[in-house]
Structures
1.
Amino acid sequence: MPGVLVIATAPEGTFSRSNLELVGGARALDRVLGAGVSAALLGGGGPLGAAIETLHQHGVPTVYCVDHPALGIGQADAFLVAAEAVARQAKPDLLLVGGDTVGREVAPRLAHRLGAALVTDCVELAVDAGAVVARRQVYGGRALAMHVVHRRPAVLSVKPRSLDAAEPAPVAGRVVDVTVAIDLAALPTRVREVQTEKAELGLEDAQTVVGGGRGLGGPDGFKILQELAQALGGAVGSSRPPADAGWVPISWQIGQTGKTVRPALYVAVGISGATQHVAGMAGSRTIVAINRDPEAPIFSVAHLGIVGDYREVVPALIAKVRELKGR
Amino acid sequence: MEIIVCLKQVVDPELPLREFVIDPATNRQVREGRPLVLSTYDEHALEVALQLKDRSGAKVTALTLAPRATIGDAVRLALAMGADEAVVVDDPRSPDLPGAVKARILAAAIRRIGRSDLVVCGCESADWVERVVAPLLAEELGAACVTFASRIESADGALVVRRQSEDGFHLIEARLPAVLSITSDETNRPRLPKVKDIIAAKRKPLQILPAADLATAAGETTADGVEVRSVAAPERTARCELLPGDPAEQAALLAQRLRELKLL
């Protein structure tokens, strides 16, 4: 069916929130385009019934389901084959793909195979005078590019945590089972191992995030940031240099490469404010910067700034916060 | 193993904000008079390739798509760091071309170069951040694809690649030929070239391929169905209020302001 096709994934039966962000984006486009929303649900190694039901409950009537054991965590080649099979059957005008580890590999290759137009890492989707308009961050978040998509079909990948997740809107649903032959042994890549690092709990959902940078000088600096985060009731993240240096797990990294956060309060400690990092936190409502260098670019995005040594400022701040919170 | 590293020069992404200007005619950043550097992750891609060379004697060819005015800068640095050969596709349009078009031109250049087992690129460019060149090259070349790889081991004609994910990493077995995009980690910090190597690199020959010669092989190299209508820097509404005093006073003021903003 024409209209917007969401490529939803459920490896080992897990259905992530980003799928609902794609559905939210698809439904918003459909309110103007009006040709309908459908979803491909690609998964395996776990039951898909709950995921199908979730899609129906969030306004997706038609779900093309590919249930195959090869569709496990990270197996991008298998997801590509499955997505292509559904796209060829459903013949949508637009395909929305998540910008996660697998989606980053799948979206461009899917566009290539379908001869489709391609815009990656969209942060905003809209329709203007009948044309689909996609906005994306460029130059490390220093500018926003507006793309007008002229060709159909078009593959649009969506940066996680950029679109609002779909609100519940139950519809009568139908499931179209799509059989796809996937021979894991014949695929050019195979996932041998999946390693999950201990991520800061709910970094992307936290209402307060304390971020640490190169200026902390080493892994020990993050201990005091954890104390601050605890006092504020938030989570700790980092810019690229501490993650690169192994001071913190890669999963803590906030930025263009890494997670996008938009908390009510972001406290940047010892972070210079490289565009790479700013792209992942500029949407925060209130930004506080603590840095020794008054010329650090972080002060050009911060609302409140302290020029000083974090080793002196942060302990004083922790004490003050605890005092105000009556603890 | 024959390795090709795709490199791109960008305007230094950390230039002060006042020097960041968008040209409304091209919808791209003004490059004139600004320092050009290798795009951040391209340096890591080069380092990964050179480490494979150090370990197993691979041959590394640096490939770039550049306008004549800056031709060679990126690949000269690569030669100084240890790349064996350098190929430049001379294309005056290149800074403004979308990634999908660049991928087609690069694929044509790679076919022209001949045998290649492995192509590595940066995981994203510091300017346009499309993250499409590696996956599209893989499609064009019929190669395996892994993006956001940080470490590569080569064994028995295949690769074991560590790919960074949202919450950790995946170990991926990839067949050759393969196209990988590289992200940074503590194992692939770019080496610094020695002064004598920088001087020697200036005298090494570059193979120049005019883009026009590749155009036919690359097929359509202009339209990609997507128009860039505008590029705009958002108005910075935030004006930073610096809190005065000694650390204790600054901390107290901050806590007070956070309370006023109902953030405490």
Note: Chain A touches chain B through 95 residues (CB under 8 Å).
2.
Amino acid sequence: MAKSQLKRHWEPGEAAFQRLLTWLDEGIDSQGERYLDIRDRLVHYFARRNSAAPDDLADETLNRVARRLEETGAIDDVAPARYCYIVAKFVLLESLRQRAREAGPLRDDTDAAQSLRIAAPDAAGDERERTLACLERCLQTCTASDRALILDYYGGQHDSARSQRKHLAGRLGLTANSLAIRACRIRSRLEACVRACREQ
Amino acid sequence: MPPDSDDHLVRYLLGDLPEAEAERLDERSITDSEFALRLRELENDLIDRYARGEAFDVSLEQFDRLHPRSPYLRGKVQFAQALHALTSRTVVETRGAPSRTAGPKAASASWFGWPSLAAAAVLVLAATGYLGVRNLQLGGELQDVEGRRAALERQHAQLQKELEQARDTPPPSRTPIIATFLLPPPRRGLAVETTAIPLPRGTDQVRWRLQVESDAYATFWAALKDLSTSRIVWRTGDLAAETSGSDRVVTLTVPASALVNERYLIELSGIDERGSAELVGHYAVRLVLQ
């Protein structure tokens, strides 16, 4: 995937990054979890908006928020998540404008990605094999319990998934909601790992 | 449609809502953690069903149009396909796998030098006298406790065994019955001809081998439309054409459980080099249950 062409004017130093973490935590030390959570939501927001480089745009958004915090010392007129959304909207608009300027008569990143798709008759099969190999490699980086959980959670057919997950939650002593949160987080991590592996 | 119903959110995920409403949900997807999770679950569910080729709602027609254009969705679908392949394989493997027990650990005391060992031995000897007396006092109590513990362990092991058996008992397996049919290429300029398909009772899967005349495409997609409801009831991922004699054939396999009515239309599309789908032909079928 092509990297975003948005220019980065500023990246937070350690102190600015710590200030960002503290601000996002809103008084409850989450050990960086809250930052990861917001970043993940931003990545999905940009991705749903069909951005070619959602990770880059999520980072750019959080860099801008950190910079604003650095400049003003505090942002307390709006909740952190909402402020991040407002900044993300601007970042998205800028990236769309930039893409439109650069695309011109040429293909944009999305078109390039499409054309890769049917590069050769066996390309789809190769791509699948590669993704599978990456997933296996990424699963090895998970703990044994996370590995078992994600394979059990996403293992069933749609019809039986609900009862299977209920059973799994009972076995693990979790509520259905806690299990869903845990499974979603593991899946997000794995997806990011597979994306990175495929880009290597 | 209620504003936060699953169907509404699926429309949002498929980019099918007015911009103002999409923005409202965009904001919630970042500011509301429960909503973000629900959205993620719906999205994963949608993609998993698509990747597994399960029967789905008509709204996924849009998913098909959207997914080649979105690197994000393409990546998610590929991930889901890989996860599905892996979980299917894991189920098969775990059924036959021997249980693993932890072996003895390597000699981790190798760093433990002889002088330290000698000092420890002296301490152990000194302590032995005291412990010997104390042991006699505690011996009786210990025997009782051990007895109770052993009984509890036996009980626990028995319960565990019963639980494992209940969990792992596979459903009775049999070879799936697959009915295979060859459909000739659609004739140009003519109305779509309906082919009658005799379907034996108890069929698990129906496999259609669609003859195609065009060799312009390396990849195809097929959609199965129920003509009595005009709904797409089945859709494939990428299909490759194979050569069979002088013909090119695309094979489509559909679970019989997805075929609840009689008349269906198979729409076959070729995917060009830009990733766009172009209709190659229609194949009309009428199922005759035998």
Note: The helical segments of chain B are 6-13, 19-31, 33-52, 60-66, 71-96, 114-168.
3.
Amino acid sequence: MATTIKGKTGEWEMVIGLEVHAQVISKSKLFSGASTAFGAEPNSQVSLVDAAMPGMLPVLNKYVVEQAVRTGLGLKAQINLTSVFERKNYFYADLPQGYQISQYLEPIVGEGTIILDLEDGETREVGIERLHLEQDAGKSIHDQHPTQSYIDLNRSGVALMEIVSKPDMRSAEEAGAYLRKLRTILRYLGTCDGNMDEGSMRADVNLSMRRPGEPMGTRTETKNVNSIRFVQQAIEQEARRQIEVLEAGGEIVQETRLFDGMTGKSRSMRSKEEAHDYRYFPDPDLLPLELDPAWVETIKVSLPELPDEKKARFVKDFGLPIYDAGVLVADRDTAAFYETVAEGRDPKLAANWVIGDYFGALNKSGADLESAPVDAKKLGGLLDLIADGTISGRIAKEVFEEMWDSGQDAGAIVEAKGLKQISDSSEIEGMVEEIIANNPKQVEQFKGGNEKILGWFVGQVMKMTQGKANPGMVNEVLRKKLG
Amino acid sequence: MSVDKETVANIARLARVRVDESHKESLAKELSNILGWIEQLSELDTEGVEPMTSVVSMKLPLREDEVTDGGYPDKVTANAPEGAHGFYAVPKVVE
């Protein structure tokens, strides 16, 4: 895979690091008892703590801490038994406190790793630098009034995990793979729903360019990119911009940029320049967070099987190709669906059907696993009919389409439509004899050494039986009678 | 470490505090004094001494994840100089 870009003056290499803000799944906020539910009336889920009324004190949500620890463990990361909440000071209309409570010098989670699954089936390791807990800000709405911004504090104080990668990625493709894998892991763990369009997962992209083998260049940060496609676009676009500047003899200015999904372009956020002096200091309202190692251990033993382990198991126990295993584990529900179908059946046949016909039907109809007319049990029933020879694989595809349309069981459809496979050897022999008798020319060709003509004979039998003849038996009988 | 007038101006701007030109000199002196005093504290050998994070020996209290608060938008926005449709309304702050 190419990891360099050709400029006018030679090769350039991207150096990419991602900061992901993942909203923690919890009922209430990080430091207050207000609800985190999405889409409520403005300011209806705000406590006086979230609105930063004087004298209010933050009290930490234990479950959110557990979620952060769970995520850290899922990322195979160091869990810091002591961590410290600090104040990150800046002014903005949707930040009533005038500071964000975050973690800085001592985050709750330290270094870990993520294994990327790339398009070609290759894997690549990307380091995690840290994960820390922090408050989300409120929401500003700028397009409702000509001279005013409207502020909704429902999101103010909701718990976020900021997950910072090491600058280990070298292409937009790898950045996409990183986000997909991180999202998969978070969903398996149940610590973030990963819905980028609802803003519960957002990414900041740090990017610099260098000549291969040289030290890192000056980076820019593109903020709040809210889809994987946009992240990849923002990277491509910013890389080209930086190469242009560098090749013209210019210098990259370390700055914050804002990506616009509508235009696919980013622009400098000059107003943020002075904001970089955040004057962090430990929040005097909060003592250091100390974790009991025994508690961390109980979280560790309760972790679900994670995608990498599940993938390895599918390859080892079911003999699936790595690519197929990767597709099946990308989503926890899909993996569970596959396992139900594969239970007590041929796992490779099950994988082919789930990935091929079943996913195809899902995509075409726009349904998901829950709303699909065919569930795992019904699909399994169809595979049983293939396995015991009742129907052929070809007829099975027809039956599957019928199942999808009608929601009926495979067995009922096969019965009603008379699609049962013909495996009676005398019946097949009779048909084969008839065809041989009627087509002396083709028989001659076969005897003259034209092996391909055998397919034509098979086709004739299938035509006579509307595809219901057992193909293995047809081949066998044909060879016997012709030979 | 000593603080000069420019640093005072910068700190004031970051904190959104208006400081008259005439006060900057005296504030610079005051802040320098405070920093000097802190520096004096750091002369103490604190090798192997755990930092004291609270005057009472206690652990950070934690709460259960239950919805126990909110649901009073009128109260929350009662002090807002301006509001509209349940939102706070502020001078436009678009980037």
Note: The interface with chain A takes residues 10, 13-16, 53-54, 58-71, 73, 75-77, 82, 84-95 of chain B (CB under 8 Å).
